[in-house]
């Protein structure tokens, strides 16, 4: 018997800016859509520092995990897109602060630009149950 996917939506993370869900849980996995540093009220933070943008995006990721009944310890794979590889050490330090001893698989991908002129976007795969 097929199980339908569960669509995760929370007001404590940035609202979707298009035709997608914040996350989808299906067959034991949670697929978290790319999180830009948009605040939960929908306001933008393009003028903020890289560190502030990264924290907003990480807060969104954590809020979505919480809404799905999960936490950072359930992350399996994280992909991070950064504008400017020079931001990698700052991101790594902040990320370690959010995840503590948990070390999921991860890729940091330097890109030339992101939507709205942001400097970071984070997507993830986590355990859903």
Automatic annotation (TrEMBL):
<dbReference type="Pfam" id="PF01042">
    <property type="entry name" value="Ribonuc_L-PSP"/>
</dbReference>
<protein>
    <submittedName>
        <fullName>RidA family protein</fullName>
    </submittedName>
</protein>
<dbReference type="InterPro" id="IPR035959">
    <property type="entry name" value="RutC-like_sf"/>
</dbReference>
<dbReference type="InterPro" id="IPR006175">
    <property type="entry name" value="YjgF/YER057c/UK114"/>
</dbReference>
């Amino acid at each position: 018997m097929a199980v339908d996917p569960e669509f995760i939506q929370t007001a404590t993370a940035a609202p979707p800016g298009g035709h997608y869900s914040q996350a989808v849980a299906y067959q034991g996995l949670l697929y978290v859509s790319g999180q830009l540093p948009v605040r939960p009220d929908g306001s933008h933070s393009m003028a903020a520092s890289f560190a502030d943008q990264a924290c907003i995006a990480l807060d969104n990721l954590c809020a979505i995990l919480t809404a799905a009944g999960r936490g950072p310890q359930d992350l399996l794979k994280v992909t991070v897109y950064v504008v400017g590889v020079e931001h990698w050490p700052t991101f790594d330090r902040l990320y370690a602060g959010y995840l503590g001893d948990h070390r999921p698989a991860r890729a940091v991908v330097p890109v030339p630009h992101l939507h709205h002129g942001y400097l970071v976007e984070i997507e993830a795969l986590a355990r859903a149950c």
